User: Which sequence fits this backbone?
C-alpha cells in the first residue's frame, strides 16, 4: 500500500477510503458496503466535497425535528459505524433521548457484535437493535428487523446511508424520515421527508452543532424550511455544474461556481479541495 | 442476501455488483477495488448505462491503434479480471499479437495466481506479468513491475480501470495510452491519448467488434478520430444533462436526452434502462 501524503489535495477522502477498506478486512463492513461507499465518493466529488448551504439548512431542520420528536431514532449500519461512530455518539449527546439502533442489510451475529462494539467504544449508550423484537412491514430482508422500543415506534427516524426499499417502508410505516444520502437521485433521498445530500461525517457534525445551538437559545431560528424537492434540485444543479466545468474548472476548486451564489458558502468545510479523482 | 429479479430495471448493474462482491470474498478483488467499482457505478448511471456514440467512435479508433501497433498490450488488474475475463480473451482473439499482462496495485503472489487463473480459464493465452522483469520509471509501488516483453516495450497499451499515477507514468515512458475509464474527470482519462468513457464490458466488446470489422474489410473506415478532449467533454455533458433532468427525466430513461442528438444512438446496448439507483 502506498502511504498517503497529508498534502494530497484529496487527503481526507483517501484516508476515509483507506479506513473503510480496513474495516472491510476486519468484517465490519460488507463488500457491498464498499461498493456503496465508492458511489458516494463519486457524488461527493461532484458536490465539491463540502457542505452546500442548502444542506446546512437541511441539517438545521433535521436538528429541529429530532429535538421536537417524542421518540427520535438514528439507524446505524456497518458503513455508518465504520465511517463515523464518534459522530453518532456526539449526535446522541446533542439530542437528548435519541435512540441509536443497529440495522444491517447483511446481518450476521458477528457483524452485529462488531458494529455494536464500535459504537459503544465511541460512547454510544443504550444501543438498540441487538435483539430485534419487531418488524417494519413490507420488507422481506433482515433489514425489516427492528426494536419495538426503537425504530418501530419512532416518530422521527434519521437514516444515514440507507437503502431505498427500507426508506420507503419506513415512510409507509408512518415514520417521518430524515435521510443522509449523497445521491440526490436515489430512492432513499427521494423517499425522505427531509433529504440531506451531504457526506456522512459532515452531516452528522452539522446536525449535532445545530441541535446544540437550538438548545442553547431555546429553539430553532424562524424561517421556512426548504422543501425536499428544492434540496434535491439544488444538489443536482451543483453536481451538474461541477461536471460541466470540466477539469479546468475543477482544478481551480470544486464547488467554486456555487460559492458565488446569493446563499454564500457555509464555513463548515471539512472536505479537501480539488482533483484528481 | 436478497435475490435479484431479472425484471429489475437495473438488473445487469446489480448482477455485476453481486459478482464483484463475491470476487472480493474469494480474494480476487481488493477492498479498494470494490470502492473503485462503486465510483464507476455512479458514473455509469449518469452516463445512462449505455455506450455513447462518441465512445463507440473511440472504441473503433482503439481497435485501429491496437491492430496497427507493433507491440500492443492490455494491462489487467483484479477488477478487470473479475468483471470481464471473457471480454479480455475475446479481445485477444480479435487483435492478433495482443499481449495480456497482469498488473496489480495490491500485489500478492496469491492474488497474481488468482487473476492469472481467472484469465487463463477464460481463454487468455501467453499471459505476462507473472514474473515481472522490468519497471516503468517514476512509479514507487508494485504497479511499476512489468514484463520487458509486454508493457515495458509496448508501443500501444490498453489500460482499463487504471489509476492516474500509472497512466501518467506509461505516457511519460513513451507508450501510447488507451484508457477505459468511466470518470471523465479522472487523471487516467485525462492522461490518456485515447480515453474511452464507457463501462468495461461494453468497451471491450466494442473494441473487439470494431477490430473484427476492420480486419474483415482490410482497414478502418476513413474519418477524423475524435480528440481526447472532445471525447471527455461529450461524456461530461451527457452526465451533467442526466443529472440536471432529475428523477422525472431519469424515470423516462437515462440518456434519453442524448438520443435525440444528430449523432444518433449506438445500437450496441448492454446496459439496462432506468432508475432507481
Assistant:
Amino acid at each position: 500500500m502506498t502511504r498517503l501524503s497529508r498534502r494530497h489535495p484529496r487527503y481526507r477522502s483517501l484516508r476515509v477510503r483507506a479506513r473503510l477498506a480496513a474495516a472491510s478486512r476486519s468484517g465490519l463492513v460488507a463488500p457491498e458496503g464498499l461498493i456503496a461507499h465508492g458511489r458516494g465518493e463519486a457524488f461527493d466529488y461532484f458536490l465539491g466535497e463540502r457542505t452546500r448551504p442548502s444542506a446546512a439548512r437541511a441539517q438545521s431542520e433535521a436538528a429541529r425535528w429530532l429535538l421536537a420528536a417524542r421518540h427520535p431514532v438514528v439507524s446505524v449500519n456497518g458503513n455508518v459505524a465504520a465511517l463515523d461512530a464518534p459522530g453518532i455518539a456526539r449526535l446522541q449527546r446533542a439530542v437528548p433521548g435519541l435512540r441509536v439502533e443497529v440495522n444491517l442489510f447483511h446481518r450476521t451475529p458477528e457483524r452485529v457484535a462488531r458494529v455494536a462494539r464500535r459504537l459503544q467504544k465511541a460512547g454510544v449508550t443504550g444501543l438498540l437493535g441487538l435483539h430485534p423484537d419487531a418488524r417494519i412491514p413490507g420488507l422481506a430482508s433482515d433489514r425489516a428487523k427492528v426494536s419495538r422500543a426503537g425504530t418501530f415506534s419512532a416518530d422521527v427516524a434519521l437514516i444515514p446511508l440507507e437503502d431505498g426499499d427500507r426508506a420507503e417502508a419506513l415512510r409507509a410505516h408512518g415514520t417521518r424520515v430524515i435521510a443522509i444520502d449523497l445521491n440526490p437521485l436515489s430512492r432513499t433521498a427521494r423517499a425522505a421527508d427531509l433529504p440531506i445530500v451531504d457526506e456522512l461525517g459532515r452531516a452528522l457534525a452539522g446536525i449535532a452543532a445545530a441541535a446544540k445551538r437550538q438548545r442553547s437559545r431555546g429553539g430553532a431560528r424562524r424561517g421556512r424550511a426548504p422543501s425536499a424537492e428544492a434540496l434535491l434540485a439544488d444538489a443536482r444543479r451543483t453536481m451538474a455544474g461541477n461536471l460541466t466545468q470540466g477539469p479546468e474548472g475543477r482544478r481551480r476548486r470544486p464547488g467554486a461556481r456555487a460559492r458565488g451564489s446569493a446563499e454564500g458558502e457555509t464555513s463548515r468545510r471539512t472536505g479537501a479541495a480539488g482533483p484528481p479523482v
About this structure: Residues 94 and 250 of chain B are 36 Å apart (CA to CA). The first strand of chain B starts at residue 72 and ends at 76. Chain B touches chain A through 47 residues (CB under 8 Å). Strands of chain B lie at 72-76, 99-102, 134-135, 145-146, 156-160, 176-180, 194-196.
